[in-house]
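Example 5.3 — ABC transporter substrate-binding protein
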Amino acid sequence: MKKWGSIFSVAALFASLLTGCATSAPKAVDTSSGAAAGNAPANATLAPEKQLVVAGNGATVEQMMKDDIFKKFNAKYPDVKLTYVSGVSTEIVAKVKAQKASPQIDVTVIEGGEQEGGRVEGLWEPLSDKDIPNIKKVGADLKVKDNSGVTVNFTPMGISYNAEMVKAKGLPIPQSWNDLAKPEMKGNLSIAEISSNFGRSALIMLAYANGGSEKNMDPGFEKLKTIAGYMPTFAKTSAQLQQDMQNKTAAYTTWTMARSLVQKDAGLNLEFVIPKEGANLVPNVATIVKGAKSPNAAKLFIDFLLTDEIQTLYGSKLYYNPAVNVKLPDDLSKKLSFDRSKVVNFDLEVVGQKTPEWLDRFNKEVAPKVGK
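Solution (predicted structure tokens):
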């Protein structure tokens, strides 16, 4: 596997790519925890409610949230009962929208495309560094539109493959998104439905690899129809993708570098590739649901996610690049590095607006091609 360059800031997702290289997370404002030296934090007067409901992705993300982050937060705020609702980001946004009259979720931590879709729907409360002082530690290049959320980490998309299986079967090492449509992929591939960010990102990149973009998805859908014939089904969740790779029922999948590194630690002989056409980044964005029942606890929780301790934990346990300028161990920093010149800038507003249309088209045009 190539040695990727320095860690990329996700400015590309919201503005434009910066040039040059860096050895840590994007440069941020130098603050402690949002308070002037010697004074109490700006949110010190917030009294948390007795419960907090957090929604986010499943699998390893859910495990770390429950086993590590929740326990650490409860050590600081022992009277807050924490509940986790897992699901893909599209499902979470749909739940929040359905519950708009009486929100059952306080905080979401979801991918940027879905967060943007929710912003357009008016689902999120605006965030302020008055109540969430650690927002000041997040670089301006990670800013979320209208302060409707805050980026807590990010990771690049790409293709992951089982090097042992690929060698044993004489399969190709992927270099292009179009390699997923090679006949050799039949019976060796697992890709998520486009309701998942993993599947949707692959679809958009297939469009880019064939002269299209998020504004012209026809080339991507045509390629995905071919790919659908190589698989018995599209994975419905990231947990299913993970299982397919662990069970070695698939040699290839499309997901993030973070997921690939976690599974490599678990014993799978995985390699991760950013194809020659490039790939997008996946920012995970924390939001407070508009009308949340526990707004104070929500603000304190999001502030906690941006502490150096939790940011380092995201990097060390899940291999997400931190959103704050935290110093990581050299070996971890090297592991999280990649070539940011290959990043493709998705227009998240278009992605958020078009996803329902793409889902409908997927169900009508692509799903019937599965296994044929």
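Remark. Strands lie at 51-56, 81-86, 107-111, 150-162, 189-190, 252-256, 270-273, 281-288, 321-322.
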